Amino acid sequence: MRQSFVRAIAAVGFVVTAGSALAFAAPPASLSRSESKAVEKAVAAPSRTPSNVVRDKYRNPVQTLSFFGVRPNHVVVEMWPGGGWYTEILAPYVSQGGGTLYVVAPDQGLNAVRKLIQGNEQLYGKVRAAPLTAGADTPPIPAGSADVVMTFRNVHNWMMGDKPIADIVFKQMYAMLKPGGVLGVVDHRLPEKADAARERTSGYVKVSTVRRLAEAAGFQYAGSTEVNANPKDTADWPGGVWTLPPVNRGPEADRAKYLAIGESDRMTLRFVKPARTGG
């Protein structure tokens, strides 16, 4: 779950340029039919890793990317790409429309995606790896340049460890986006009535916590969808979210039970960086 390198940017700085008055920007319009077909084509591409494809039923990439309003001509940032599950979809989708895909994480967190790129330069060669550097005073991509920033199942990692970095990363994401740009967040959902201390150990995080972090960084909440919800997940497993697939750390005797539950219950939230108005 990508915990090994989250401490690497505990000292990362950020820049949020002060400007004119801010106003709420409406969520992006629905994708056009041709854009929706392009997303479907990218998800159905034979180049995807077969073990990734079988997880589509839990991750719902077509609906998720459509909800976030990701267009082929966008400058897109995937934060903490891990093994590149979404990168395999985003790279061909964005490149076909003349857009740009950045993958952003501490340097060692980009190794898997670099391997993906090296394995198929023709398909992934346009992906730009942008390491987060400790002590940097600017975001790893040009400030105010991204149309969409997305992060999938990472906020809980940023909250764990001796030095949580979630507030820093949210401010970095805010700095990357252009005014009116969209932040999309998917993560394992902890019930609101649960003990907040479990956010530091279980791999689950509350919707209210994600909203607090995003809004403290300057974002406006712009809605949610239940497309990645799983009501079978009670989020109270002794081994945390890693009890469930795909990690399967639960007791071997209960393996069938956890496989029947499937992957975790997930929030899917959209935020907007307010558009500047006035002089």
Report strand %. Answer: 15-25%
Count of helical segments? 11
End-to-end separation: 44 Å
Biggest β-sheet description? 7 strands, mixed
CATH architecture: 3-Layer(aba) Sandwich
The CATH topology comes to Rossmann fold
Dominant shape: globular
What percent of the residues sit in helical stretches (DSSP H or I)?
25-40%
Q: If you average the pLDDT, what whole number results? A: 89
**Overall number of domains:** 1
Radius of gyration: 18 Å
For the record, the CATH class is: Alpha Beta
User: How many beta-strand segments?
Assistant: 9
Strand order of the largest sheet: 4-3-2-5-6-8-7
Strand-pairing-aware structural class = alpha/beta
Low-confidence stretches: 4-28
Q: H/E element string?
A: EHHHHEHEHHEEHHEHEHEE
CATH superfamily: Vaccinia Virus protein VP39
Describe the structure.
With 279 residues, the chain is of the alpha/beta class. The chain has a single domain, classed as Rossmann fold (3-Layer(aba) Sandwich), CATH 3.40.50.150. Helix content is 30%, strand content 19%. It contains eleven helices and nine strands. The chain has helices at 33-43, 50-53, 56-59, 61-68, 87-96, 111-119, 121-124, 155-158, 166-176, 207-217, 255-261, and strands at residues 22-23, 75-79, 100-106, 128-132, 146-152, 177-188, 220-224, 266-272, 275-276. The strands form two sheets. The protein has a seven-stranded mixed beta sheet. A two-stranded antiparallel ribbon has the order 1-9. The protein is globular and about 50 Å long. The model is unreliable at 4-28 (pLDDT under 50).
